[in-house]
Amino acid sequence: MSTDAAMPMVEAEGLTKAFLLPAKSLFGKPQTVSAVVDVSFRIPRGRTFGLVGESGSGKSTVAKMLLKLITPTAGELTVEGKRIFSQTPAEELAYRRKVQAVFQDPYGSLSPRMRADRIVTEPLRAHGVPAREAEARAPELLRRVGLPPEAARKYPHEFSGGQRQRLAIARALSVDPQLLVLDEPVSALDVSVRAQVLTLLREMQQRLNLTYLFVGHDLAVVHYLSDTVGVMYFGRLVELGAARLVLRQPAHPYTRRLVALASGDTPLGAVRLQGELPNPLSPPSGCLFRTRCPYADATCAAELPQMRQVGPEHSVACHHYEALAVGDKAETGPMLQDA
Amino acid sequence: MSATTTGRLRQARRMVRLPAWGVAGRPPILAAAVCLLIVIAAIGGGAITPYVPDEADFTAILAPPAWSEGGSWQHLLGTDQLGRDMLSRLIAGARISLLTAVAAVVAGGTVGVALGLAAGYIGGIVEAVIMRVVDAFLALPFILMALAFVAALGTGVGNIVLVMVLTNWARYARLVRSEVVSIKQRDFVALAQVAGLRPAAIALRHILPNVMTSILVLAVLDVGRAIILESSLSFLGLGIQPPEVSWGLALAEGRTYMSVAWWLTVWPGLAIVMTVISFNALGDWLKAGFDPRGRL
Amino acid sequence: MSGPAPLLAIRGLNVAFGPAERPVPAVADAELTLSPGEILGIAGESGSGKSTLCGAIMRTLPRSARVSGEVSFMGRDLLALEEREMAKLRGRTLSMVLQNPMTSLDPLYTIGNQVKEVLRERRRDGVALRPGGAVEVLRRVHLTAPEMRLGQYPHQLSGGMRQRVLIGMATAAAPRLLIADEPTTALDASIQDEILILFRELREAAGSAVIIVTHDLSAIRRLSDRAIIMYAGRIVEEGPTAEVFAAPSHPYTRALLDSLPRIEAEEVHLRAIPGQVPDLAQLPPGCAFAARCPVAQPVCRMHQPEESAVGERHRVFCWQAGAAA
């Protein structure tokens, strides 16, 4: 599913990551938590892929894998045709110039004891640009994100949250990357500042032809920048498609609920989610969402749904998507796990 | 929102009246003054003593301090059993005590920080091995180690510093390692990795500076502790030997005459107590001063 | 104002920090009235003064704060009370739920332990409790398997569950007024609604009034009867929620609503407000929003706007109220 015939910038195939928890007792077995299971997607060059999900959905883990901060347990990640987890150290350094990141916490993202100009030019220096030359570029880098040149000599604690995120964006852009991984970049910011930073990100993308992976929990925010959207629930992709399609005709019950909530007009209590969150250590059989899905039935408890095409650019992992689309499904759920 | 607004609000909220001996924000003037005095004494050493510290003067044995009966302004703080001027011995003692303490703290600190950094950042088997060694060293009692050491290698300033380093480094290692483990999780470290920095560069340029504040605070508090350790050693005869003089040694020598000449033990004792308290107060102020800004 | 006597009436509330020569006015000239059983939403961003306002009501501000004005709660001026009297009110008639459920519970004690401790304290004061013990407290906030939860520790519960526990504890004695400071900010979107519903149920079951303070405008729109918008320490608009959101009178309210990403058909639109919130220590003489306002006139920059009525119980502080955006 790609919008142009050219090779996609990013291609993820069956990405899986399982974490081992230490055993509870001397003789117990260590338990595994599957943070990400079988996630596949493509990002064409110059576009944004948005990953929506709640905390625990695995979206941040996917982002970290793309940044090579975490190694997948299974699956393949390819950027510009090359597999990123079998690189030589030299290739990895080059990769680190191509891919940069902006994280959620404007307070934790910047080293508190470094001045702004050093922070912003650090990636340049890490890639061999001499310190003096790098520092000379600092005012321009700051100006690009709307910060005044006087900001160069300040320390992080002298900036507001929104300004710090701009600083983080300036740093990320300093090495002229092609791919930007944005993990909840505006969630910790004030409402009006959020809008400013999102506008800045959109401008930067258009001006520099950047490719974005945008990870977030707020559907509207993610959709603002995204061309394609993937919805994650407990480590799996439950819906994947062009942003407009997912918004206009959400196919998965979870996505429908998120869209209804994001529309803002739904009165309190109109769209409820009953049931319980599954236990990550012993996930329910079949569909993971069945413990909270109002339409779940025996099929859902028996078999894990696979991703199926709903339209040319739209796929969903749900047994009942057809019935749901025509409003023909009875509310037989949720199917709770046995205690 | 404007940075200055948040900063102003935070600053304004903290402006409460503070006691003069120094709590969160106000420097402990008294303690700083005492420390400064000690440092001047240590630097000046023999050059600023009114008399040569170990020069005996049998015409003025056990002279009381100037303001007591029988004392004279020639010897402000009195003399000891060999007629040596107490004030001079105090100043000379300051030099030895402070220098050995600082050397021990600096050397012990450097070793401890390096190992703690390695343990915390590298993790895995390196961390496990280092921390077990740390545990072993922390379990050893100082006096016994000192005794064994001195018995094997003899006394002297160098050996004393060595003993103090051996018993001290482990505390730094443990503190640094736990701080490094928590700083490692923070976003700016991950971003440094994403920027392309090598692990050594990340450790030195991002992790170490952020651990520095805790290290500094521990070190300042440690000086006081080191002075007491050195004094104890010297008191037991395991540390500084005559003709050199330290406060602990002076205490030991004055012990026998305590009933007739209180000034022989009181001055060195007071010097130790006041120095330790002052360094501790300084350390407390540093800790409080670093915290709010550093945690932003 | 017709109707029952107000539960809470605030007149001329000013809160300033810092030295007297250069005060930082965190809240300026705040006035509001709350009826029994009413749900009021106070919206604002950082520096708006909304949290300081709550602190002033609950008297939990640091000692360096200079508070003046009148905060009348059930007929008594809270600002004039002795701390002992205030302590009797707090947690009982006047209760508060704070922002971060992660750190508000002691990690070393079980949930049951902490809930029972709260109940014991209330009983000791002879305050009337709602019926039932600790289990009932948890059941009222729709915590699943409440008996099991009593034996669990805070770290075994998710953020949403912890917030429920805190709300249960805060409302065990059916307070007349509950103040919730950013109750849903740290929680996932699908849990937020469930928490907001608890406030509504509290009003229905016990007649409590609720003040919810947040920068999440959609929460205010869905939950509250009335909304107050604050900017740089002042109230700029107040009115019935539906009116304020459907037809905002103040340019800031309008700009704020426009800056939220809103879904229209199959696209998302938003419009950012230029500039930044001003430094509270260096506020201009006139309206604090004038520098960023699309319809500002010279009078706005020189003089503090006065109150004007826009509808029944809908007031706004703007010289240009009613002007086209």
What does this protein structure show overall?
- The complex is a heterotrimer of chains A (339), B (296) and C (325).
- Chain A has helices spanning 59-66, 89-98, 116-126, 131-136, 138-144, 161-173, 191-208, 219-225, 243-248, 253-262, 298-302, 321-325, and strands at residues 10-21, 31-43, 48-52, 74-79, 82-83, 99-102, 179-183, 211-216, 228-233, 236-242, 308-311, 314-316.
- Chain A has 339 residues and is an alpha/beta fold.
- In chain A, the strands form 2 sheets. An 8-stranded mixed β-sheet of chain A has the order 6-7-8-3-9-10-12-11, sandwiched between helices. A 4-stranded antiparallel β-sheet of chain A has the order 2-1-4-5, with helices on one face.
- Chain A is globular and about 65 Å long.
- The two termini of chain A are 40 Å apart.
- The model of chain A has no long low-confidence stretch (mean pLDDT 88).
- Chain B has helices spanning 3-13, 29-44, 86-122, 124-139, 142-153, 157-184, 187-195, 199-235, 247-254, 263-294.
- Chain B has 296 residues and is an all-alpha fold.
- The two termini of chain B are 16 Å apart.
- In chain B, 70% of the residues lie in helices and 0% in strands.
- In chain B, helix 2 (29-44) packs across helix 10 (263-294).
- Chain B has a single domain, classed as MetI-like (MetI-like fold, Orthogonal Bundle), CATH 1.10.3720.
- With 325 residues, chain C is α/β, with parallel strands linked by helices.
- Chain C has 12 helices and 14 strands.
- The two termini of chain C are 31 Å apart.
- At the A-C interface, helix 7, helix 8, helix 9 and helix 10 of A face helix 8 and helix 9 of C.
